[in-house]
Amino acid sequence: MFTRVPISSAFKPISRPSRLLPAQCLRQPQIARITPLLLRLLSTETKAAIDKAVGSAPVVLFMKGTPEIPQCGFSRASIQILGLQGVDPQKFTAFNVLEDESLRQGIKEYSEWPTIPQLYVDKEFVGGCDILMSMHQNGELSKLLEEKGVIVPAEQPEVPTPS
Question: Helix, strand, or coil here: 63?
């Protein structure tokens, strides 16, 4: 699906002046030009696949590894937070970005968020592990998940019937 173009000139060593002269400090910084190699557009095929994945369940986590065997600490922490929150397993799905490089890069472009894991609730991007942790600690995540109806209902204590 993707091809690589070898570019040896892109890896030239960069030299840095040992100290800046006052005139150099006042110069406007150079703005890097975006070349086709730096700008990668999300293909329609990948976007459609991610749209389908995001809509496949009320709670969707794009992670490294699986919920049973996370492959990074941030993915593990995200799974633990969702477990502590009581997310209904019937309303949750996870996608292992390590299985597909186009998904791994595409999800970052799709959400405009540079890191994985990424959580979506009702097709809306919530955030990465740092955002989940913060929302978990301040109670916002619990409120969001309850509002969306994705928490396992609490068991009601049995009321004895009079005999």
Answer: strand
The helix (H) or strand (E) run that includes residue 94 is strand 92-96
Strands 92-96 and 124-127: unpaired
Within 10 Å of residue 51's Cβ, how many Cβ atoms? 12
User: How many alpha carbons lie under 13 Å from residue 88 in its C-beta half-sphere?
Assistant: 14
> What are the structure tokens assigned to 86, written together?
């009581």
Question: Would you give per-residue pLDDT tens digits along the chain (163 residues)?
Answer: 433 333 333 333 333 444 444 444 445 544 444 444 434 577 888 899 999 999 999 999 999 999 999 999 999 999 999 999 999 999 999 999 999 999 999 999 999 999 999 999 999 999 999 999 999 999 999 999 999 999 988 776 666 666 6
